[in-house]
Amino acid sequence: MSTLQNDLYLRALLREPTERTPIWMMRQAGRYLPEYRAVRQQAGDFMALCKNAELACEVTLQPLRRFPLDAAILFSDILTIPDAMGLGLYFEAGEGPKFERPVRDIKAIEKLGVPDPEQELGYVMNAVRTIRHELHGKVPLIGFSGSPWTLATYMVEGGSTKNFSLVKKMMFAEPQAMHLLLDKLAQSVTSYLNAQIAAGAQAVMIFDTWGGVLSPRDYREFSLRYMQQIVDGLTREADGRRVPVTLFTKNGGAWLADMAATGVDALGVDWTTDLADARSRVEDKVALQGNMDPSMLYASPQRIEEEVATILASYGHGHGHIFNLGHGIHPEVDPEHAGAFIEAVHKLSPAYHR
Q1: Which keywords does this Swiss-Prot/TrEMBL entry list (predicted)?
Q2: How many angstroms separate the CA atoms of 63 and 143, rounded?
Q3: Which domains does the chain have, with CATH numbers?
């Protein structure tokens, strides 16, 4: 494996000194880029794009050709694991992901197997290997998975949801069934992420998109507990380097101290939490990633730069900050505004690292 030409991102995750704040964007390979839309059309549909290693590699690298980003993130989807469990994932135009066979009772859960990452999910590992090779050590590659709770919400609801009634009904009325499902998912995510690391991912991230819909008690029991199980089982060293792990719970600002206690290296922070508050709550035990509101990219480049300045000042001096949006970039954003955002971080952040 080639040595890294730019390891700012990995160093920042480990709270090591960096000359500026590294930056990447969630969903940086995606629909806001015309070149992505062209490849998506060529692939036919979203999952066909995910399952073609060359095309997944191409869209992973597209944002790096446009912008001086400090990391690449594997182009894939959080629902690859439930799909590999045989739930029949498909995408309806304008409605997002759906499952042909949602999981609604303990019998269905008992039938679920833990997918073999090199078999049922081999296409993801092929993509990781292809991307890692094509990056030529330019920047590190991030692997990722959805959290058990987040995957469970889609599996039980059968797709996207606004009120989470079916998954919460199972959680409260049949907690035994929910714990069985979450345990199987935790095992699946652990082996999936470890396989990504073995294939060449140099850092991994767990996206807990729906942890924020839970009460503090239920968050600890049904989300954090299973992310802890994953963190405990992850490979933390490869290629002679530490493999940093980031947890991100959307709307999870209240639980940052609990999340930091899992033994991860970094936490994602969305825009509903001030970075200064987040930093004091985690007592500088972990790095922090975030946290600009993605909608800010609709504003003028000057306003974007002002926001970058505010966020850098909020985190303050010192290391351990990775600049990012508080969630994924919106499809309608002008790529030039994304460029202005990245440029502002390059311009303004070195002052915080002297």
Answers
A1: Cytoplasm, Decarboxylase, Lyase, Porphyrin biosynthesis
A2: 16
A3: 8-353 (3.20.20.210)
